[in-house]
Amino acid sequence: MLIFLARRAGYMILTMLAVSILLFLLLEVNGEAVAVKVLGPYTTDEQRNLWLEANGYFRPVFVRYLEWLGNMLTGDFGESIRFRVPVAEVLVPRLINTAILGGVTFAVMIPLALIMGILAGMREGSKLDRSLSVTAIITTSIPEFASAVLLTFLFVFWLSWLPGTSGMTDGFRPIELVLPVTVLVLYGFGYIARMTRASMAEVMQTPYIRTAILKGMPYRQVIMRHALRNALIAPFTVIMLQINWLLSGVIVVEFFFAYKGFGALLLEASLNQDIFLIQACAMVAVFVAVTTQTVADIGYTWLNPRIRFA
Question: Cβ(252)–Cβ(144) under 8 Å?
Fold first, then answer.
């Protein structure tokens, strides 16, 4: 296991290095383009050259990359063009906001999807199974922007039960999380539930489960000790992938409800060509992606000890 963890850590570092090199080549090599984005399109060549010289853009590319990477590792991402403050001061609060939104979404979506998927898989072909399949297909077929519009019409304009935005202008208010969390749960619930249902149904048909039941082992014990652990391997992969989706794929939901999270920040950075903020967001997203993949690999060995990684 220690060798496996060391190798996974090495893969994470190599992946991050590869992404950092690609990101630097795409956004930082052309110093003239960076100067235009920072100073504006109407500055003179002399002004741009002075800025490039002051910021070290006339030095060799390799030296610039090492300095850029060192600054990244210490949390110095530069100054945001859009907000005119250090990128970290904008990025950290937005990450925390998205972590809150994602945490609440996971706390609702994961238990609900797993419980419903397991129950449907245990009773393959039952009314519960068919009802879950239909519900899951409907919810995953409706994109977030469509369900956001529908729920806003119902609960904001018609029933007047919930606020229409989640800007938290008056401080943190849990009620403002209800609509964005509901939209995210509706979209992600069905995929996890169907994956859990399919995995559970497959496990229930395996010979060792049938043998345990025929030998008279209590049904609850068969499910909890033998079937459930193997059935969770496939859903566990999907759940870990949902973290990446929640981090960078909630742009529509955060923008629609004016929620100041990481997704909305990434959209703002792209629209305003905030090069330093885009770099920071990209590196954070890749770091989360490789970390969750490593956690998923480790989780495999816990759920099924027969799985080993060379």
Answer: yes
Domain boundaries of the chain, sorted by first residue: 2-73, 88-264
| Residue 2's pLDDT band (cuts 50, 70, 90) | low
Amino acid symbol at 22? L
Q: Give me the residues paired with residue 86 across strands.
A: 79
Fold held by 88-264: MetI-like fold (1.10.3720)
Q: What percent of the chain has pLDDT over 90?
A: 9
Greatest distance between any 2 Cα atoms in the chain: 86
Cβ neighbourhood burial of 44 (10 Å; 0-12, 13-18, 19+): exposed
pTM of the entire predicted model: 0.84
> What values do phi and psi take at 118, rounded to 5?
-65, -45
Rounded alpha-carbon distances, angstroms, from residue 293 to 78, 88, 219: 29, 25, 34
What digits encode the pLDDT tens for the residues 179-193?
999 999 988 888 888
Neighbours of 267 (CB within 10 A): 15
